[in-house]
Amino acid sequence: MSDEQDDAHARDFVIGSLAWQIGQLEPGEFLFRPEANKSTRRICQRAIAIVTGREPAREYELRLWHAFRHAHAAEDTRVYRIKRVK
Fold first, then answer.
1. What contacts 72, CB < 8 A, 6 or more positions away?
2. Which residues does the chain have with pLDDT short of 50?
3. pLDDT tens-place string over residues 64-83
4. Residues contacting 82, CB < 8 A, separation 6+
5. Helix (H) or strand (E) holding 20
6. Do 57 and 86 form a contact (C-beta atoms < 8 A)?
């Protein structure tokens, strides 16, 4: 990505936001997003839609990467993986 493209991209999103983080990914790179609440997956889908809405050539994959149950806490923990495909 050229410096001009980086600058334009930075103006599009709040630096540090999930959409900004997703927009920084190069093909093959990924980031993990722990589930903070039941709407985490929906939030990830929305951020991906925002990025691909501005740059339709990009493709991302959102998958449940890891899930486990705490033995004593009776709660599930999930981690999602967002990968840039192209």
1. none
2. 1, 3, 6-7, 9-10
3. 999 887 777 777 889 999 99
4. 22, 25, 30, 31, 32, 33, 44, 48, 60, 61, 62
5. helix 18-23
6. yes
Note whether 44 and 33 are within 8 A (CB): yes
Task: Determine the residue type at 74.
Answer: A
- Cα(80)–Cα(48) distance, rounded to whole angstroms? 13
- Within 10 angstroms of residue 78's Cβ, the number of other Cβ atoms is 15
**Type of residue numbered 78:** R
Closest to 33 in 3D by CA, of 20, 44, 46: 44
The β-bridge partners of 31 are 82
Mean pLDDT over all residues of the chain? 86
Q: How far is Cα 58 from Cα 23, in angstroms, rounded to an integer?
A: 9
pLDDT at 61: 97
pTM: 0.78
